[in-house]
Amino acid sequence: NNVLELWSLFDFFMPGFLGRASAMEALHRQVLPFLLRRLKEDVLQDLPPKIILDYYCELSPLQVSLLLWPTIKVRHWVDV
């Protein structure tokens, strides 16, 4: 939601890539006058209708077992 959060993510995955956080804050202050933040309710009438497409697929046996494993473990702990 803000530049510091973006910097934090980049610094976690690519340490040093964006420099120091203070440099990012300075850059943010410089470009802030050129950024336009809009609220959804202000532009909703200009947006095209939302399209929702649901795609269903079968889980592999491994995916099913990984999905069920926590439930099986909890039931075992409760029964013991």
UniProtKB/TrEMBL annotation:
GO terms for molecular function: ATP hydrolysis activity; DNA binding; TBP-class protein binding. InterPro entries: Mot1, P-loop_NTPase, SNF2-like_sf, SNF2_N. Residues 4-65 form the SNF2 N-terminal domain. It comes from the Eukaryota. Pfam families: SNF2-rel_dom. This is SNF2 N-terminal domain-containing protein.
